[in-house]
User: What shape does this take?
Amino acid sequence: MKILYQPRLVAFIDVLGFKNLVFGENTGSIEKYYEFLLSKFKAAVEQRGFEYMLISDSIVIYCEDKLENFFELMKMINIAQAGLLGKGVLMRGAISHGGLFVDKANSIIVGSGLINAYNLEAQAKFPRTIVDRSLIKKYFESMSDALTKCTVGGLPHLSIRPQNGHQVDFPYLNYGCILGTSLSKKPFEGALSALRDNYYKNEHAEKFEWLRGHLVACFEDMRTHLLGLPAPNANERKRIKRAEENLTLLGEL
Assistant: This one.
C-alpha cells in the first residue's frame, strides 16, 4: 500500500457522555443520535461534497483545504451541534488541517490533519467546537477579520468570547445563534431539558455552566441585533419575543 497525504481540513467531534447514552435505562437518546447522523447530518455532508467516518463515539469530517470549505464546514457543524443539543446530545470538537490519507474500503484514516484535530479537541474542554488558530492566520488578516467575516444573518458564526471568567483561548463555533434563529421551540426545549437534568449535578458542572452562559450570551446578542433593526418584520418580532422568553427560562435555572 502506498500512502499519499492530501492537504485537508479535518474536524474531530466527540460526543460528551456517550457512555451514559449506551448504558442508559432506555435507548431513546442514542437512537435519536444515530437517526440524526444517518439522515440530516449525512445529507449535509454529501451535499457539500465532504466525507466523514464514525469511529466509536467520535465523528471525523474531512474535505479539501480551502476557504469556501472552511465556511461550509463551520456552518454544517454549527447546525449539527445545535440540532443534537436540541435532542439532549452534547458535542465537543475541533477543526484543524494537515495531511490526510483515507482508505475507506479498509477503514484506514491517518495523517497529521487527524492528529492535529484529535489533539486540539481535548483542549476544547467545554461543549463547543474550537478552531485551530493557525487556520485564522491562514485564511484571514487577523482574528478580528475572521470574526467579522464569519457571520450569518448579521450574527457571529464564530466567537472568542470567554464565559464565566475563563480566559480567551480558541475561537469556537457559535452554535447558540442557530437556536436563536429557529422559529421552532423544540431545539431550545431540548437544550433546556438537558440543562435542567444536569445543571445541579456535581459531575461536569463546569461544562453545563459554560453551556448556560453560552446560550444566555447568544440570546442576548439575538435580541440586541433584532431590536437594532429599523423595522423588524413579523418573524423578527417573534424571535425577539422568543429570545426574551428563553432568557427568562435560563435565568430560572
